[in-house]
Amino acid sequence: MDIKVTTLEGKASGKVSVSDAIFGLEARDDLLHRMVRYQLAKRRAGTHDVKNRSEINRSTRKMYKQKGTGNARHSTAKAPQFRGGGRAFGPTPRDHAFDLPKKVRALALRHALSAKQATDSIVVIDDLAVKKAKTSTLRTTLSKLGLENALMIGGAELDKNFELAARNIPHLDVLPVQGINVYDILRRDKLVLSKSAVEALEERFK
Description:
Layout: E1 2-6, E2 12-17, H1 20-23, H2 29-42, H3 102-118, E3 122-125, H4 135-144, E4 150-153, H5 160-166, E5 172-175, H6 182-187, E6 190-194, H7 195-204
Parallel strand pairs: 1-3, 3-6, 4-5, 4-6
Antiparallel strand pairs: 1-2
């Protein structure tokens, strides 16, 4: 499969040949769903916490005698039904992450790339680099290419000027090829790959 390559100025710059095993699969929604859930669960902090009755700093003395008062039986004022008592069944710190096999994660990334290619949402640019780190200039350049909501993947090393110019543009994410992931691919309308990123992906899934 061949994909057209353009420059940042919108000029044609030839074609790049890509593997059907990476960009030509029939996308599986179940795989993509599992991977997105895996990523979102993994990044949850899980630091939510409340004090249960054992953590409340309060007297452990029995409130009143067991029998003869006509009231319900109670032990200490730490019980959840009393003001200032512990919380019953409240959240405690925990890890929300779950395991997903490495092969499944790799396959999900290939299906995400294929899903973008199937809707003509992949743009290959010869080099993600600019001479000056100027946000307004880059925004104008990208809007001419129709890239107002995009994930941009550069090579192993990002061009510093491009990174600085792009980081203040809303709805635009810039990542090195090592950081490419299913969630970021699916949350943006367009996927922009540099030629070096395409070559790195081909090598990765060889």
